[in-house]
Automatic annotation (TrEMBL):
Domain Glycosyl transferase family: 239-420
GO molecular function, one term: glycosyltransferase activity
Source species: Saccharothrix syringae
Protein name per its UniProtKB record: Glycosyltransferase
CDD domains named in the record: Glyco_tranf_GTA_type, GT4_PimA-like
Keywords: Transferase
Top-level taxon: Bacteria
The Glycosyltransferase 2-like domain, residue ranges: 451-611
Amino acid sequence: MLWGVSFDATPLSGVVVEFLKTARRLAAGTAYSVHLDLGYDIKADKDAFFRPYRDEAALFPDWVRLDRVDGLADVPGYDRSFVERVLAEVVQGGDPALLGEVDRVAAGVADRIERTWERLGVTLVVVENGTLPENITYTRALYRAIERYGARHRLGRFVLWRDHDLMWQSEPGAAKYGRFPYPATPAPRNSPHVHYFALHEHARRRTLDWVPDLTTIDVLPNAFTCRTAEVDERNAGFRRDHGIPEGAALLARITRVIPQKRVDRDIHLLALLADRLDAHLFVAGDVDEAPGEHARLTALATRLGVRDRVVFGGWLTPYDTRVAGRYSVRDLLAHADLVTFLTSYDYESYGNPVSEAVASGTPYATSRYELYDEVYGDRGFRAPVLDVRVHDLPTPGFADEVAELITDEGKRAEVVEHNRELGEALFGESVAGGLLDRLYPPPMGPRTRMSVVLPVYNEAATLREVLRTLHDQRDGDGPLDRDLYEVVLVDNNSTDDTAAIAREFAAAHPDLAVHVIHEPEQGVSCARRAGMEFAAARSRNRSGTDVDERFYLVSADADCRVDPHWLAELLAAMETSKAAIAVCDYYYNPDHFTGRPRLWDAIQRTLRCRAVTFSLFGGFPDGKGFAVEREAYERVGGIEVFYQLQGGRFVNHLSDDWDFGIKVANAGGGITYAPRSRVEINPRRIDHALDEVITGRAYGSDGIIVMRDIRPEPPAGAGGDLTAEQARLAWDFSIKDFTPKNVVLPVLLTPSLLEDEAVVAFFGPDLAARLGRRIAEIRDEMRVLDFAPIHSYKTPSYRLYFEFADEIFARLRLHVGEDIGYPPPLPPCLRDVPPERFTEFVRYYCEDRESGEAHNHFGNGGVF
């Protein structure tokens, strides 16, 4: 979860707009939800301290939730009057007498911040303007909360701290925040949890003059989507709705309506333009923030004779957002002929409206505020510039420049194109985005070696126990070092308390890092992939790790309990073998099958076969428990989600884990079996699918394999034993599903296994040699070079099964037990085929994709 806090205490200031752009970038393609604290409980001079949110949410896109720290009003001594007193006496007056009280109150505030973050499962924090000392109590509290929360959850640099304004940029002449070196201001500090950002190189240099040893500060310019703002169906009525004639030139001022923004200059410019062209001024800002200033500006417009040409339009939604029923800044710019930015000399740092104008293809006129040349002028941007140190108000000459830029279409087009090219290069989205993509995704503890990915969907009933087994992992006789692993829980649109339970567990067990992320596309394959991508990206940002150290992505299932030594044995197997994948052992608790001897016998026979073949071939990963080395994961492109049509709709194919293992094996990655790494399978899987196991339709038919819901109570009648005939059918489908995948497929993918002594001993030298020759023939005949695509491995596996079934079963009886028996009956269509043509018709049968007969014969995932 991404938590943002703005120290601006204003719904849609430039600070908040930049937060939205950054948060959208950070959250894109990830599972972050975005919560924003507008800072009403921080900045005292906005008349909003402790005020509940009203209709502010309507200004924001639906992916942002307005939030705030719980319980701040209950912190003794923390209120608006205290904040104002500290600002006046400590910051402005230089009197340290209150600092003891500041620290006491800050401790209470920090506690509330931490509690809020724990409740929400925060993993990334964006602080906007936190250094500006309007409220040093809150800033000190925030630092305290960051250090404790970050250390507890081993989050690394999980805080993006960006200062838009600092003491030398915000009314320095009035010394509102004291003078250098600003002793009362909590200065940026070197922290393992904070990365600082300045908007431009000037601000970075000044920050380093103030804090010379600061090591983690970069320039992160405000980012803009360079795209021409155009009139479309959505904003076609903008002028009409605001009473602006279609033929009039439109000046746009996007600002807070406060004295420091000098909107009076725009009104004076409008009056000068009255003799040159028909023009109107649209002021986009909250007139209720400073009612006195709005009244003054209205009176000025009346006195200058342009009151009917000035529209105070209120807040527009941010530049690149769409909110139903509201106009945005880009909608305004689609109709504007010029953006004006005649602000105070010493009040601005970056000047977002200038960038918004450039990015949208609109010319602009500006004052030469203190940092204009640093950000724009010296970079080569072209515009009429009012030197406000010489002329406080617009001059006739300045008005002439503006009028020419509006009316001369050739000059206008030239200026727009020039500025757009510069803007794309200097502050286009890719500029800031590249830095953000490198520094964030969320960081990981430096000693973490394994990320356990746990996809969940409505698992509230069992999740606590599953998380407990993950938390209580052992290494020998003692607990497994919890710095070595973390849990990434992927909430796949749960409608119950799954996510809340996970966050509660994380808060109650701070010694284990538990991350809760969200995957909106439904399906366990999508969720598993999202978790592994999240972990893989973060693992590369660990600090101080050996470049040769292997990192492992581990899969677990939310309805299965892992044994105490599950992770330690997986890690040991991977470290010893240096394999790409390690596969666990799985078992059922026999107590669940008391009174069901036939069913238990079928289950045990399958698992005994599995133990033998996995010890020989390594097996293939099952989502219930496997580990993959990160480099191997990324080398094959990670988990791939396949889609199939079912009933006219695309559905996720269930066997992403198997198909992933096949991709790794086919790419030359080794697979090892870790028999002492064990997972207990939830028996509900059998209770809910037993009828389909008996008929070979456990997870679908005709080649469609999809997830079924096994969370509800078992169906009526579940829990009884099988009849003798049902037991025979269940075993037939289980062994038919098992043998092609676990005996034939490994040597089909890796024929060199047939040269291994243990494998030759299993098959016998003659059968091993003939299998090898036949595999070479089939691979050549089918021109199979890549077994990664879904089902491409099934046809050759099925063919080899039919051709060698009798001999393979003989070897299974020899190595596993006589009770394995003989191959189940052939499909009726193959029983009457002449022996000399059997291999030929097996090929036709297995390759008949349209009928799905072969898929149905082998059971579609019916193995126990």
